[in-house]
Design a protein that fits this description.
about 350 residues, alpha/beta, single chain, about 20% helix, 8 helices, nine-stranded mixed beta sheet, disordered N terminus
Length: about 350
């Protein structure tokens, strides 16, 4: 018996939502040797890259980013956030656009630093923008329009949100026990920080935001709230990652984008590892300064040798708050069920 074409068409339409519902949030923590480059692919297929890694090195970092993009079947990156103007964050921008199209670069405004190094980075960024990408300058409270995700800018250009995010805003009794440090006049303190939400899943990435700027967001009230995943600030340096910030975020999982000899300082490592409720800490590199005592087990480190092939960590998250992390080096993985 022949099946009418209308019946076939209706069956296809009814089946399509089931296929679409299976799509998840994917996050690739790309190894750029102690810089930052985190590729986020929303359930719609739209994408956002946080930082571009270092310049030079024969396109090493751009090629590693593109390899992750190809794994996600991306032909372009829709948004690239430049958290701030330092070599390990914006230095690879011009090389990146030679390898893959970029829709829009997002930044906090002009570079506040001066001198030869700053001039060189300004030239790199200008060259990247000349490739045809749009430029979007953001301030705290702005959103980045990735379909299926809520991406909120919580810090930019030395300022932070004034109104608490939904579900946040509780008084923070731990603030009094955490002294402030000398103010940081560098670009680090101007970092663009974002909170990414997919249903019940939340991830916090504050770039290289430093101590006092962290405290401003969680003291006297916690304006950003809790999250399942914390991208450890500043590659795991102890001029960031105040205990008050980490405990306010109260992550189930932390990911440290350190290099072999950059970041992953023992004091910051201990602060993150001791956070109440933390289930696991994953690292992009074994931190040479930490030794076995302040590094996680090798199974949860993407690159255990100083000279490495640039293995990455991949996380897949569902809207119910559950997620899985896979180490590309050894295929070791752990799944985290829905929780707080």
């Amino acid at each position: 018996m022949r099946i009418p074409w209308l019946t076939i068409a209706l069956f296809g339409l009814l089946s399509a939502p089931a296929v679409q519902a299976a799509k998840d949030l994917r996050v690739f923590f790309v190894d750029v040797e102690g810089g930052q480059s985190t590729l986020i692919v929303g359930p719609s297929g739209e994408s956002m890259l946080i930082d571009t890694g270092w310049p030079g090195h024969n396109f090493r970092d751009a090629d590693r980013i593109v390899a992750a993009a190809k794994s996600a079947k991306l032909k372009r990156i829709d948004y690239v956030i430049v958290t701030h103007y330092h070599d390990d964050h914006v230095g690879g921008a011009a090389q990146l656009v030679q390898r893959i199209p970029v829709g829009t670069f997002v930044d906090h405004g002009p570079n506040i630093e001066t001198g030869k190094g700053a001039d060189r980075l300004n030239e790199i960024y200008t060259k990247a923008l000349a490739g045809g990408a749009k430029r979007l300058t953001v301030k705290p409270g702005d959103t980045i329009p990735i379909k299926g995700l809520e991406v909120t800018v919580v810090a930019a250009n030395g300022e932070h949100i004034q109104q608490a995010l939904p579900g946040a805003g509780e008084s923070n009794p731990e603030c009094q026990a955490c002294p402030r440090k000398a103010d940081d006049p560098s670009e680090n303190a101007r970092s663009v920080g974002v909170v990414i939400q997919y249903g019940s899943f939340r991830m916090v990435d504050l770039g290289d935001l430093t101590w006092n700027k962290e405290l401003d967001m969680v003291c006297p009230k916690n304006l950003i709230g809790k999250a399942q995943v914390f991208v450890v600030s500043h590659h795991g340096m102890d001029i960031s990652n105040s205990p008050v910030l980490v405990r306010a975020i109260h992550p189930r999982l932390a990911v440290m984008n350190n290099g072999a000899r950059k970041g992953g300082t023992p004091d910051a490592w201990r602060t993150v590892k001791a956070s109440p409720g933390l289930e696991d800490l994953w690292q992009l590199h074994f931190a040479m300064a930490g030794g076995k005592e302040t590094n996680v087990p090798d199974t949860m480190i993407a690159n255990i040798d100083e000279i490495c092939s640039g293995n990455y960590l991949e996380m897949t998250a569902q809207s119910d708050g559950s997620f899985t992390v896979v180490n590309s080096r050894n295929k070791y993985q752990r799944s985290y069920p829905p929780g707080r």
